[in-house]
């Protein structure tokens, strides 16, 4: 007995004209942008039903993949406690519960090492500060935004989102009594900062376009209606943020566009003081600020493409005194100050790194790591006066690890490596059973593009192996090697996993980013195609065994390469994909549009930008060709890439190239990051991976 294949939903076509710079374009599916219209919800629901029916044969495989992830994950676990003041702070997870539990435990006399527990059990004497499972009760979605304990340990500022639209409600909890105060502020953004005496809390709100633009001052115990605006940013290109320095001496107000920065400071001991400007904004000059003793450290790109480090007086900010000169090819990304040391996070040769400088010295050293491919970055380091730093380390084969590093002796102390439990077959995880490689593709213009790969040891290089290639390539964001438990289910089925480090990302420094944005954006797409072709040429895979995957701006990449090289892939996964980029960037009323003009260009004002974006935007360039199978995944409440972009894209693909296989899955109660609970997230990943394995012919 066979089951009849259901018919794909057909979106009605309502021609809507758009005229810019003498060009008239017709958008038949613009009506899908009306989120509140019953016909829009009906269409998305029909698409979900169709996707469910078309993937019903994968139900057992999805269940198997979910179970493999669950079995390999230590569900009851405890993070490495970090000391701040008189407490150790940590989080716990409990088997069967979706969300983390935030806790602390008092530091005991003579205790210098972080406490540990057996099998992730609660520490003796712990205080539960927030239980995400309790907060999430009765809600399909839950996200914790702010989580900020006051310097005296008395108050906790926290914020919650129950829709996925990243509009958080801010509250204050008394950690002595457990009482949640009447203080409540809706529609806040990420970022809070406490005054030195913990009487005042600074926070951020957004405008109608979801741009964080106001910093407020709130006095604990008073109504939010009495709060005072400390800074309002009128320039729509700029976002604002607020934070307390590690030294707890200053509140920083960070004001930044994509390419320009300005930082203002308020003494934490004088929270009602007027913010002082470190350096007025200058177009194209980016800088960040960290407090260190008598000075502010300035990481900047003024005449330094890959950034340099300088300082200025903390008492009277003025001229910048050089500390570390610009070194082309070594991108300085951030600086963290401790009482007697500085730690610089950097990247060079496509890899991340940590550089240590002793206070009062110009000498520095880089921390060495053994693997050819890895990711390293600072972890929670709340104490300013410490001789140790904590960092996280992982690779494509090494599970996430937490180390403490002695800044004087240079001893590296492993505090925790994420457990990888035996899978359903009872096999222990052994990194030696897997290989990681760095390969290079040659782009059309002769540029060498790095590719990171991981596979089972002994995987053949004769083109017979299936492969999944991942890409992003925007905002100078780097896709550094990372470990993934769900990925093991692919590798163990013979799949090669590759990351194409295309231009537009930041893997090889600022120039790598500049060569993949604005009127050079197409390099991102052609680089990815070059990587796909190279994987075939080098014997890693074949076109009928290659699936591509990307999310958000990486979803734009997926749509673009589907148009550029549909023959290069057997399947494409586009998650929350930015596939209707031109329409969105033409509408300044949409969330984020104006701030994005420095990344993509302003097609409203510049006909060259308009023509260039129109030539690559996936939705504008759907053609009657043989596309690979496409799975688009989106969320109804996403405020970063609106749900209607992939919905319109799939509708147009079906209309223009009806012979193709296209699926749309919409999370009806989530945001940009998809489902919020860990089990729901595992199920979503199992859904995607089952579809990928099906396209690759592997079960």
TrEMBL record:
<comment type="similarity">
    <text>Belongs to the peptidase S9A family.</text>
</comment>
<feature type="domain" description="Peptidase S9A N-terminal">
    <location>
        <begin position="9"/>
        <end position="414"/>
    </location>
</feature>
<dbReference type="Pfam" id="PF00326">
    <property type="entry name" value="Peptidase_S9"/>
</dbReference>
<dbReference type="InterPro" id="IPR002470">
    <property type="entry name" value="Peptidase_S9A"/>
</dbReference>
<keyword id="KW-0378">Hydrolase</keyword>
<dbReference type="GO" id="GO:0004252">
    <property type="term" value="F:serine-type endopeptidase activity"/>
</dbReference>
<feature type="domain" description="Peptidase S9 prolyl oligopeptidase catalytic">
    <location>
        <begin position="482"/>
        <end position="697"/>
    </location>
</feature>
<keyword id="KW-0720">Serine protease</keyword>
<keyword id="KW-0645">Protease</keyword>
<dbReference type="InterPro" id="IPR023302">
    <property type="entry name" value="Pept_S9A_N"/>
</dbReference>
<dbReference type="Pfam" id="PF02897">
    <property type="entry name" value="Peptidase_S9_N"/>
</dbReference>
<dbReference type="InterPro" id="IPR029058">
    <property type="entry name" value="AB_hydrolase_fold"/>
</dbReference>
<dbReference type="InterPro" id="IPR001375">
    <property type="entry name" value="Peptidase_S9_cat"/>
</dbReference>
<dbReference type="GO" id="GO:0006508">
    <property type="term" value="P:proteolysis"/>
</dbReference>
<dbReference type="InterPro" id="IPR051543">
    <property type="entry name" value="Serine_Peptidase_S9A"/>
</dbReference>
<protein>
    <submittedName>
        <fullName>Oligopeptidase B</fullName>
    </submittedName>
</protein>
């Amino acid at each position: 007995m066979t089951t009849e294949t259901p018919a794909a939903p057909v979106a009605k076509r309502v021609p809507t004209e758009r005229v810019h710079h003498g060009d008239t374009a017709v958008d038949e599916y613009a009506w899908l942008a009306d989120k509140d219209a019953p016909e829009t919800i009906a269409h998305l629901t029909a698409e979900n039903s169709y996707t469910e029916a078309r993937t019903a044969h994968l139900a057992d495989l999805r269940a198997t993949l979910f179970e493999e992830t669950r079995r390999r994950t230590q569900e009851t676990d405890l993070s490495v406690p970090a000391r701040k003041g008189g407490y150790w702070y940590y989080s716990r997870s409990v088997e069967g519960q979706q969300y983390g539990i935030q806790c602390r435990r008092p530091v005991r006399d003579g205790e210098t090492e972080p406490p540990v527990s057996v099998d992730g059990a609660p520490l003796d004497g712990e205080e539960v500060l927030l239980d995400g499972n309790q907060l999430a009760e009765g809600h399909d979605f839950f996200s914790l935004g702010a989580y900020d304990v006051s310097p005296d340990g008395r108050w906790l500022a926290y914020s919650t989102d129950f829709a996925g639209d990243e509009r958080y409600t801010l509250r204050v909890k008394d950690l002595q009594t457990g009482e949640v105060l009447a203080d409540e502020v809706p529609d806040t953004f990420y970022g809070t900062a406490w005054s030195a005496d913990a009487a005042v809390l600074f926070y951020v709100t957004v405008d109608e376009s979801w741009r964080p633009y106001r910093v407020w001052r709130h006095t604990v115990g008073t109504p939010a209606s009495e709060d005072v605006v400390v800074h309002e940013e009128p320039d729509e290109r700029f976002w604002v943020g607020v934070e307390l320095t590690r030294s707890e001496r200053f509140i920083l107000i960070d004001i930044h566009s994509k390419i320009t920065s300005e930082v203002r400071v308020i003494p934490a001991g004088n929270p009602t003081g007027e913010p002082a400007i470190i350096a007025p904004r200058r177009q194209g000059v980016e800088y960040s600020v960290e407090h260190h003793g008598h000075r502010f450290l300035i990481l900047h790109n003024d005449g330094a493409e890959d950034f340099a480090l300088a300082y200025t007086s903390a008492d009277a900010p003025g001229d910048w005194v050089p500390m570390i000169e610009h070194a082309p090819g070594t991108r300085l990304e951030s600086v963290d100050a401790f009482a007697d040391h500085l730690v610089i996070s950097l990247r060079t040769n496509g890899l991340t790194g940590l550089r240590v400088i002793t206070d009062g010295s110009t000498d520095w050293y880089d921390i060495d790591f053994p693997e050819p491919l890895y990711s390293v970055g600072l972890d929670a380091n709340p104490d300013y006066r410490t001789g140790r730093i904590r960092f996280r380390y992982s690779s494509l084969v090494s599970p996430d690890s937490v180390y403490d590093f002695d800044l004087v002796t240079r001893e590296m102390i492993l505090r925790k490596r994420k457990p990888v439990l035996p899978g359903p077959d009872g096999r222990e995880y052994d990194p030696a059973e897997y290989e990681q490689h760095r390969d290079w593709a040659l782009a059309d213009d002769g540029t060498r593009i790095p590719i990171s790969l991981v596979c089972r040891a002994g995987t053949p290089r004769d083109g017979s192996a299936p492969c999944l290639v991942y890409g992003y390539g925007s905002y100078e964001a780097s896709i550094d090697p990372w470990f993934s438990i769900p990925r093991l289910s692919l590798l163990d089925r013979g799949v090669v996993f590759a990351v194409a480090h295309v231009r537009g990302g930041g893997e090889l420094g600022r120039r790598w980013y500049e060569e993949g944005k604005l009127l050079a954006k197409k390099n991102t797409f052609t680089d990815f195609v070059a990587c796909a072709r190279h994987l075939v040429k080098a014997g890693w895979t074949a076109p009928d065994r290659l699936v591509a995957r990307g999310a958000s701006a990486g979803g734009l990449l997926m749509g673009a390469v589907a148009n550029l090289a549909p023959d290069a892939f057997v399947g494409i996964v586009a998650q929350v994909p930015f596939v209707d980029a031109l329409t969105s960037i033409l509408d300044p009323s949409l969330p984020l549009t104006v701030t994005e003009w420095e990344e993509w260009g302003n097609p409203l004002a510049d006909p060259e930008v308009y023509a260039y974006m129109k030539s690559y935007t996936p939705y504008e360039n759907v053609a009657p060709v043989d596309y690979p199978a496409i799975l688009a995944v989106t969320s109804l409440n996403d405020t970063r890439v609106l749900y209607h972009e992939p919905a319109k894209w799939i509708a147009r693909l079906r209309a223009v190239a009806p012979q193709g296989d296209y699926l749309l899955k919409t999370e009806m109660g989530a945001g940009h990051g998809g489902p919020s609970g860990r089990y729901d997230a595992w199920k979503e990943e199992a859904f995607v991976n089952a579809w990928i394995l099906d396209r690759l012919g592997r079960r």
